[in-house]
């Protein structure tokens, strides 16, 4: 038996296909996580694991493998950075948007801020918001408020330092909105008009998240109403809030100088990060083909772009001057940021731009990989065809496909596309931004501490644990269990993984998490798919493409293929997951193509 192995080193996985040269039949395949950064010598341990895995799956002796073929993919590294371009600033101790886990009461309360000790000195009919200091327990606080209510003082709300809102509210004769866990309660300004709002469970603010609602409460002029827009915007989605009007105090939204991106192509262009993703991508189109990108020194984006080049230079042992960024993807997003000047750990969703970059070097590292692999295995190693060409050959083994056809290879670091016409000519493109960027957007927008949790949210559907015996899935259906679930899961939002339910530590609802996840995928995968197909089209119009096959790890996602298919449907394009060799699904396209190009020649699809 004389065997050939095709090996595809991807950003996330290394895949192997093994076939018999004489019978021209495929025998087995293997897959493992890529070790090191794609296209570097660190890939060799992963290659050996995947190769042994494929040999084991096919009952093959390694000495029967006569040739190993790896693709000509030059090393590519992607990185992502976030640039916050706005921030909310509070001056003069005005508090907004505090959203504790368990506020007390419900409704809107308006009045003048006073310490609870002053309630006994007030007159009947006074409208106040009382402030409860940390040294007062909930029973005493409730008794004092009740006494004031008996004296016809209108205590319309309360602000508390400790986690006592519900305990106080449960003991009051009149239910009032109470916001607690205000850390710097001594900074709450006294004798100022304030509004406290607590929404019903499961609902969000109605008055204080509306600029006209704030204007109504405080009697603002049209000009003043313009200035409270950042306040209202910061409160959207909250269940509770306190807004205090001080003579000098204001809440403003400040644009942060986030730095410039300098684009080099057929011309040179500079664009501010603060201009937003749409403007950045317009400039990328203006100068393409992109030859390099740099960032303004001393900014996040400047540091990120320089770091990408330095990492690849170090890994490939090539001069830093030879490292060039060949593509970037900018995406508008939001990041929860602590409000400057807040007194209760308030957070606001601030405008930000996410940026993915991809740098390409020469092919020297692939030669190093080939030599190391030959030394390790004793098997002849060839560096074969261009990755996109190989992926096309593999994709054409999907039943129901023929030339002309386009593929979208969606991985962890990049989204690659290729098109083969009836004559066999291939056009390809590589774009920055794929699964890793989606994970980053999810992590940032939900304010998660763990990259792993964000990755799980990206990969798996959600559920809300409604009891120890049932969960409600994100599509609204209910699943019941014979045995009780872990008590730690009760009332939690969780992802449904192969290993069971994994709870998510977040304040956000299942619906919110779902929206963030789908938006992130749409911003990265759908937009990248559209621009990639446009770039490989001979006319620059994707309407000329009839068939698109989705390959790569992200094509296995439970919703990305449907999103892309929906986006392409209006152009009359047939789109779906590939099924390589009618058995591998969307994986193994490049590895299969490497084998086919040897067995049949690069002009034949191997069917």
UniProtKB/TrEMBL annotation:
All copies of domain DD-reactivating factor swiveling, residue ranges: 90-251
Ranges where the Diol dehydratase reactivase ATPase-like domain occurs: 271-598
SUPFAM superfamilies on file: Actin-like ATPase domain, Swiveling domain of dehydratase reactivase alpha subunit
Gene3D superfamilies: 3.30.420.40, 3.90.470.30, Nucleic acid-binding proteins, Swiveling domain of dehydratase reactivase alpha subunit
InterPro entries: ATPase_NBD, DDR_dom, DDR_swiveling, DDRA, DDRA_swiveling_dom_sf, NA-bd_OB-fold
Protein name, entry field: Glycerol dehydratase
Species lineage: Bacteria, Bacillati, Bacillota, Clostridia, Thermoanaerobacterales
């Amino acid at each position: 038996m004389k065997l050939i192995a095709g090996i595809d080193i991807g950003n996330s996985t290394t895949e192997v296909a093994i076939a018999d040269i004489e019978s021209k039949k495929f025998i087995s395949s293997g897959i493992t996580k890529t070790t090191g950064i794609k296209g570097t010598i660190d890939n060799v341990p992963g290659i050996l694991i995947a190769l042994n895995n494929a040999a084991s799956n096919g009952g093959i002796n390694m000495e029967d493998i006569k040739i190993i073929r790896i693709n000509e993919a030059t090393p590519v590294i992607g990185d992502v950075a976030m640039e916050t371009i706005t921030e909310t600033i509070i001056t003069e101790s005005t508090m907004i948007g505090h959203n504790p886990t368990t506020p007390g009461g419900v409704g809107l309360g308006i009045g003048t801020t006073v310490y609870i000790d002053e309630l006994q000195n007030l007159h009947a009919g006074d409208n106040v918001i009382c402030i409860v200091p940390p040294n007062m327990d909930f029973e005493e606080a409730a008794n004092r408020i009740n006494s004031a209510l008996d004296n016809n003082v209108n205590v319309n709300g309360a602000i508390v330092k400790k986690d006592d809102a519900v305990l106080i509210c449960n003991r009051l004769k009149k239910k009032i909105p109470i916001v607690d866990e205000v850390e710097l309660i001594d900074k709450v300004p006294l004798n100022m008009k304030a509004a406290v709002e607590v929404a019903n469970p499961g609902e969000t603010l109605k008055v204080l998240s509306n600029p006209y609602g704030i204007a109504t409460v405080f009697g603002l002029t049209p000009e003043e109403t313009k200035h409270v827009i950042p306040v209202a915007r910061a409160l959207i989605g909250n269940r509770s809030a306190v807004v205090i009007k001080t003579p000098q105090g204001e809440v403003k939204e400040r644009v942060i100088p986030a730095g410039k991106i300098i684009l080099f192509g057929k011309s040179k262009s500079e664009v501010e990060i603060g201009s937003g993703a749409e403007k950045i991508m317009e400039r990328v189109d203006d100068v393409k083909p992109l030859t390099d990108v740099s960032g303004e020194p001393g900014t996040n984006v400047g540091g990120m772009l320089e770091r990408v080049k330095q990492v690849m230079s170090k890994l490939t042992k090539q001069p830093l001057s030879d490292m060039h960024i060949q593509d970037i993807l900018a995406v508008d997003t939001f990041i929860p940021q602590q409000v400057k000047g807040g007194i209760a750990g308030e957070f606001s969703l601030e405008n930000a731009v996410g940026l993915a970059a991809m740098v390409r070097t020469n092919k020297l590292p692939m030669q190093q990989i080939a030599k190391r692999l030959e030394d390790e295995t004793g098997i002849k190693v060839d560096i074969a065809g261009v990755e996109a060409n190989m992926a096309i050959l593999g994709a054409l083994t999907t039943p129901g496909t023929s030339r002309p056809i386009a593929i979208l290879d969606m991985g962890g670091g990049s989204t690659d596309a290729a098109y083969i016409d009836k004559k066999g000519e291939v056009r390809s493109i590589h774009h920055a931004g794929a699964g890793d960027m989606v994970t980053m957007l999810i992590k940032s927008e939900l304010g998660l501490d763990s990259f792993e949790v964000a990755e799980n949210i990206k990969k798996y559907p959600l559920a809300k644990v409604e009891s120890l015996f049932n969960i409600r899935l994100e599509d609204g259906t209910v699943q019941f269990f014979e045995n009780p679930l872990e008590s730690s899961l009760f009332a939690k939002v969780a992802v449904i993984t192969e290993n069971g339910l994994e709870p998510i530590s977040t304040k956000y609802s299942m619906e919110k998490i779902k929206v963030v996840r789908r938006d992130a995928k749409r911003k990265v995968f759908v937009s990248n798919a559209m621009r990639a197909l446009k770039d490989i089209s001979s006319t620059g119009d994707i309407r000329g493409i009839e068939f698109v096959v989705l390959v790569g790890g992200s094509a296995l996602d439970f919703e990305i293929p449907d999103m892309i298919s929906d986006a392409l449907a209006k152009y009359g394009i047939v789109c779906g997951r590939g099924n390589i060799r009618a058995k591998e699904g969307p994986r193994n396209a490049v590895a299969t193509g490497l084998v086919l190009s040897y067995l049949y020649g690069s002009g034949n699809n191997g069917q």
